[in-house]
Write a structure and sequence with these properties.
single chain, alpha+beta, Butyryl-CoA Dehydrogenase, subunit A, domain 3, 2 domains, 4-stranded mixed β-sheet, 53% helix, globular
Length: 346
């Protein structure tokens, strides 16, 4: 669990509730079976009705749960660990943006579970806006299932109905459980809401933190599964996990997970406290966790031996999801450049 869970019993209980929901409504077997298929609206409504997850960050006045970023980070961690498909995290972010910008009607749709959505930051699209919006948003998760896209364009939020866009599916996506696609708008009508520079930065921080949380949940889960597997398997009359070489390897991976835990907790705390260096903490966490998560998952796949390379095992799903997550906030080199800027390194 992330360190933020240890400070509030209510948050720990919330994490358990999310895990129970995943087990009941989104087990990995169901994710496998539904790969490539449209999202079931009833599945989405279940998450809205039983957990308020789509509207978790929507203000209470707009019909949402009014939760803070720590709860959203916990939810994203569990969703990552459970390999849950669908745009739950992106919808939470869109709801936050709309609620904070005063777009109460659109935020209420998200909280009611009727509008799967995505928040797209300025560095992830080439949209231009006058009275209307044109341009392309690349590789949105479950693009064909979204109802609303909230895009940051300059000092405004543009709320776009996805029915006005042309959606082009990505053929053979790396993570087939996420049905990536490109969305193109050509002179689409939009509703615009002015935002401050402070809110724009807050949205960048929140999106970066939740991307890091999802990757952290995945790497933590992969390591736990690997430890369980190695302690159950025997070779030459001994438990494989007792071999010194594997112990050392697992210890090194555990150190990477612990480091990710600390960085994520620091980023969440900085964001919630509105610290001046909140973006620095978030980008630093993301840069480290994005790369470390892919490395940990890759090593865990190998630790499973031959079975880890088969389609029947979940290890390849971990690897694909980790690689997909790594691109969630754009190319890692761009984020590292941003980290250098925030550190004053030019």
């Amino acid at each position: 669990m992330t360190r933020v869970l240890t400070t509030e019993p209510e948050l720990s209980q919330f994490a358990g509730s999310v895990r129970a929901m995943i087990a009941a409504h989104s087990p990995v077997d169901a994710t496998r079976a539904g790969a490539g298929a449209p999202m079931d609206p009833a599945w989405w409504q279940t998450w809205a009705a039983e957990m308020d997850l789509p509207g978790l960050l929507v203000g209470e006045a707009d019909g949402g749960a009014g939760a803070e970023l720590d709860a959203a980070a916990i939810a994203a961690t569990e969703l990552g660990a459970g390999l849950v498909p669908g745009p739950l995290t992106s919808t939470m972010l869109a709801g936050l943006a709309l609620s904070r910008a005063g777009a109460s009607k659109a935020a209420g749709r998200i909280a009611a579970g009727t509008a799967p959505a995505a928040l797209v930051l300025a560095d992830a699209h080439d949209l231009t806006a006058g009275e209307q919006v044109s341009g392309t948003i690349p590789t949105l998760d479950h693009a064909a299932d979204l109802a609303v896209v909230v895009a940051v364009i300059g000092n405004r939020l543009a709320v776009l109905e996805t029915g006005t866009a042309t959606v082009t599916p990505v053929e053979h996506p790396l993570d087939e459980t996420r049905r990536a696609g490109r969305m193109t708008f050509a002179g689409a009508d939009a509703k615009f809401f002015d935002i401050t520079a402070e809110l724009a930065t807050e949205l960048v921080v929140a999106a970066t933190v939740l991307a890091a949380a999802e990757q952290f949940g995945l790497m933590r889960h992969a390591l736990a599964e690997s430890v369980e597997y190695l302690n159950a398997r025997t070779a030459f009359g001994r438990v494989v996990g007792s071999f010194q070489g594997l112990k050392h390897q697992l210890a090194e991976l555990a150190c990477e997970v612990a480091q990710a835990d600390a960085l994520l907790a620091d980023a969440v705390a900085a964001a919630m406290n509105r610290d001046a260096d909140a973006e620095l903490a978030a980008v630093a966490a993301w840069c480290r966790i994005a790369a470390a998560g892919t490395h940990v998952v890759s090593e865990c796949l190998r630790l499973h031996g031959g079975i880890g390379y088969t389609w029947e095992h979940d290890a390849h799903l971990w690897f694909r999801r980790a690689r997909h997550n790594q691109s969630a906030r754009g190319r890692l080199v761009v984020q590292r450049q941003r980290l250098a800027e925030l550190l004053g390194l030019g």
